[in-house]
Amino acid sequence: MDSQTSSTPSSDGVMTSHGNTPASVAEDRQAPDGKSDIPPTNRPSPTTNPAADGTMIDVQRALVDSRRRKADEIRAQGRLKADKVTRKSRLRVARILAKYDAKANRVANPDAAKAPRKIRLDVHGRPKPLLRGWIHAGTAPLALAAGIVLICIAQGAGLKWACAVFMTSSLILFGNSAAYHLGDWSPRTTGILRRIDHVNIFLLIAGTYTPVAFALPRPWREGIITGMWSCTLVALIIHVIWITAPRWLYVLVYIIFGVSGVAFMGMFWVSPAAGPAVVVLIASGGLCYIAGAIVYALRRPDPWPRVFGFHEIFHLGTVAGFACHMVAIYMVIIQLQ
């Protein structure tokens, strides 16, 4: 049986069908002006949300920019590697060319003079003499051997430690001086070695008086050791802070420090563990230091500037002073036994 339908008049006079009509067949009613009579709140939105569209566009742009930046980084890395390879290739080519040019020159000029030696320059830009640094380089192993002998023959832990201090200070002086004058260092390393070189002589003077002071009674011994090392600390601070101080100031402090032990020479003279011989040796060593310092300050005599100059005379003075003091310490150790 066909489905029953009924029609009822609506408020606007249009007949409306009611019954079992399928929803797919139902159509929206149209108003007389052609507009839909469905309430606006139930209409589907004809376009998407503008804010959401803008956010999506920003995300896409950020993604594109990120990819471009990554691509640029990859290209930059490639250029860096290519430049590195190019530099290495050019350096290798230059070395090969230089090698074969030198070989060709030797074949073409077999009797040509040898290339001049590399000239070493001091901190002032002047050529260093050939023996610069070698005097102290040869003295360093001798100082080590002498220090070991003194430590072995010394009686008592205190005197052994004092001899070890003397040996260490002498090794620091001669070893650092040899490295400073013989090496071809960077400006920074040269400055460090130069500072150490300037204060080492004060370390050696204090290190020398440390075992010699054992020839005196305990209160005087401790006073001399404390005073010498206190002056050394002050001189060290001055030299480290004011590395560019005038040469004459260095020499003045050096001489004052060297003769400061003269005040105790009378006590050493009458001491059973020292005596006149030890005093003469200590004074002779001090005079060697002072003579070398004067030559260093005046820069004369400068006998053979290319081989043996005024600085080498100064180094000889330090070696002679060290030798005198080492013998004096040896005599003190023997007479304390």
TrEMBL record:
Residues 26-36 have a biased composition (Basic and acidic residues). Zn(2+) binds at residues 181, 311, 315. Its main location: membrane. One of its GO terms (cellular component) is membrane. It is found in: Membrane. The keyword Nuclease does not apply. Residues 1-23 have a biased composition (Polar residues). The chain crosses the membrane at residues 134-154, 161-179, 199-216, 223-242, 248-270, 277-298, 313-333. It is a multi-pass membrane protein. Residues 1-56 are annotated as: Disordered. The keyword Lipid biosynthesis does not apply. Keywords: Membrane, Metal-binding, Transmembrane, Transmembrane helix, Zinc. InterPro entries: AdipoR/HlyIII-related. Pfam families: HlyIII. It comes from the Bacteria. One of its GO terms (molecular function) is metal ion binding. This is HemolysinIII-like protein. It comes from Bifidobacterium minimum. The lineage of its organism: Bacteria, Bacillati, Actinomycetota, Actinomycetes, Bifidobacteriales.
